[in-house]
Design a protein that fits this description.
Elements (H helix, E strand, L loop, with lengths): L2 H9 L23 H52 L3 E5 L16 E5 L2 E6 L6 E4 L4 E4 L11 E7 L7 E7 L6 E6 L5
Antiparallel strand pairs: 1-2, 1-5, 2-3, 4-6, 6-7, 7-8
């Protein structure tokens, strides 16, 4: 049977699945695909999917790090602006309970903005497996918004578990108080 006749026969199928008068006696299987053809298509789709999965995981990691880094940068910007607005020192510090500064642990446990003992903003812990590390446990923003002494403060955000990944975010808060984020490629998270 020629290809043209086969297509015409498949096109003559009515809504209920039966063939109209001329093609009624033709074999129905000529309009479909074979099991082998279907298996080949599924195998090709599986191969393409397995090639795309690692790139998709890297994209998800990159977006999560960007989002978490932005959360911290926004908190630092808020601390600076609140210090200027209130004309007092505002402290951004790591916090496990959301009401006071933590004496130990990392920034991944969460952080809080304080004006003395008054909570301005609190941020919950980061998603499991992510680390936000720094050598400082708190950052004070004076009423001018500009830190007069010291050096730039650097925090590193990365995924430690289940696998390290190949990206990390470095958040820097210079003396002027404006946080900056930079994406880096790294296979180390500490």
């Amino acid at each position: 049977m020629t290809q043209k006749v086969l297509h015409q026969e498949c096109a003559l199928r009515s809504c209920d699945g039966s063939l109209v008068a001329v093609a009624r006696r033709r074999r129905l299987q000529e309009c479909g695909v074979t099991l082998i053809e279907l298996m080949v298509v599924i195998a090709i789709a599986a191969i393409l999917g397995s090639l795309a999965a690692p790139a998709f995981n890297d994209l998800i990691l990159k977006n999560r790090l960007s989002s978490m880094g932005s959360d911290f940068a926004v908190s630092a910007q808020l601390a600076r602006s609140e210090a200027i607005k209130r004309n007092t020192t505002v402290t951004l510090c790591r916090s496990a309970n959301g009401t006071s500064c933590a004496a130990s642990g990392g920034w991944e446990q969460g952080w809080v903005l304080l004006d003395g003992a008054t909570v301005i903003q609190k941020h919950d812990a980061l998603a499991g497996g992510f680390l936000l590390s720094s050598t400082v446990s708190s950052i004070d923003f004076p009423s001018s918004g500009i830190r007069a002494t010291g050096s730039a403060i650097t925090l590193t955000l990365c995924r430690a578990t289940p696998s390290v990944g190949n990206k990390r975010r470095v958040i820097t808060i210079p003396l002027n108080g404006y946080p900056k984020q930079v994406e880096e490629s790294s296979s180390v998270c500490a």
